[in-house]
Write a structure and sequence with these properties.
TIM Barrel, eight-stranded parallel β-barrel, two-stranded antiparallel ribbon, globular
């Protein structure tokens, strides 16, 4: 098993992650990932700290000293067509070459054109979950473009037939995200990724105006996402997260790479998840592990131990919730409201 750990991007966080890995003997921790420069490209997630090339080079060297790989995430879902201009092509080509010279082991992208730009470089090309690879056919297309590894769409995390079909269809590595707390089949997912892609990009417009981030009056998708789960907590249970104890079910079908989501969280939160998934066990509120709004974990308590055995139902689930009702019944048993 290989664990891929989120890294907020500043050197002190990387040191804490690696020091904890070594102090506790977490040999499963083999790779960390962080955001690239917002002057080059945005990201599909919120970004707290984006390192410049020299920072990336220094941190990569430190990671390598401790036998940990470094991956830089450039997984914007929308580039506004800039990548298909000559100016954009030259910038991305330059940046990828700089990352390669900095010793970076891999780059995570979602845009197909950028996959082809990376083909001639020795860095590993990893497909982001933002590319929504949810079928063997889609996986084959991305492998043909040059993918070395694919992070599958979290919506298929509990669809073992599709996961097995993808494993049979391609030779590249397959990664699953274990702790994403997003709604299952979220109607806001594409739009939310696009929003983050733009608000995390500081590139100037073609008029050569000074680069500034996009300032919005709020995050409509975030607010809606919380309100849906507050009104209907069964949506939390339906989310395609994977308990630390259930990773064995995925290893049994041939999946070896597990990615922890949450590079915009605190270092202590990251370390807690790293320890839980390394040990394949956790005692406490499952929501403490999930990369989801803090408002939910402050409102609900889900004892991870109470979910033992649920994976057997989900592995064979047809995902027709109106007929099944398993998650609704489970919610009434395991989801408790925290009294203020």
């Amino acid at each position: 098993m290989q664990l891929i750990i989120p890294h907020p991007g500043h050197f002190s966080a990387l040191k804490e992650i690696i020091e904890t890995k070594e102090a506790e003997g977490l040999k499963e921790v083999e790779e960390v990932y962080m955001a690239g420069s917002p002057e080059v490209m945005g990201s599909g997630r919120a970004t707290l700290h984006a390192a410049l090339i020299e920072d990336i080079k220094e941190q990569t060297a430190y990671a390598h000293q401790h036998h940990v790989k470094m991956n830089v995430v450039l997984n914007a879902s929308c580039l506004g067509g800039y990548h298909l201009t000559f100016e954009g092509y030259k910038m991305f080509e330059w940046y990828f070459n700089e990352l390669n010279k900095a010793g970076v082991d891999g780059v995570t992208v979602a845009e197909p054109y950028l996959i082809e730009l990376l083909r001639d470089l020795p860095m590993e090309t990893v497909i982001s979950c933002v590319a929504h690879v949810d079928s063997p056919q889609r996986a084959e297309f991305f492998e043909a473009l040059g993918a070395d590894a694919i992070t599958v769409d979290t919506n298929i995390n509990r669809n073992f037939k599709v996961l097995e079909a993808i494993l049979r269809a391609v030779n590249c590595g397959i990664r699953v995200i274990v702790n994403e707390g997003c709604l299952y089949k979220c109607p806001f997912r594409y739009s939310h990724f696009n929003l983050f892609s733009h608000i995390t990009t500081f590139r100037a417009s073609f008029s050569n105006a000074r680069a500034q981030p996009l300032n919005t009056f709020g995050d409509y998708y975030f607010d809606k996402c919380i309100s849906i789960r507050v009104r209907d907590p069964s949506q939390i249970i339906r989310s395609p997260w994977i308990r630390p104890e259930d990773m064995r079910e995925y290893e049994a079908i041939g999946i070896e790479d597990f990615k922890i989501s949450g590079r915009a969280n605190t270092v202590n939160w990251i370390l807690n998840g790293m320890q839980a998934y390394s040990s394949r066990a956790y005692e406490g509120n499952l929501l403490d592990l999930l990369d989801c709004p803090a408002e939910l974990k402050d409102m609900f308590f889900i004892d991870n131990a109470d979910l033992a055995g649920a994976i057997k139902q989900w592995k064979g689930c047809k995902k027709i919730c109106e007929e099944c009702r398993y998650c609704d019944e489970l919610t009434s048993k395991v989801v408790g409201e925290i009294k203020k």
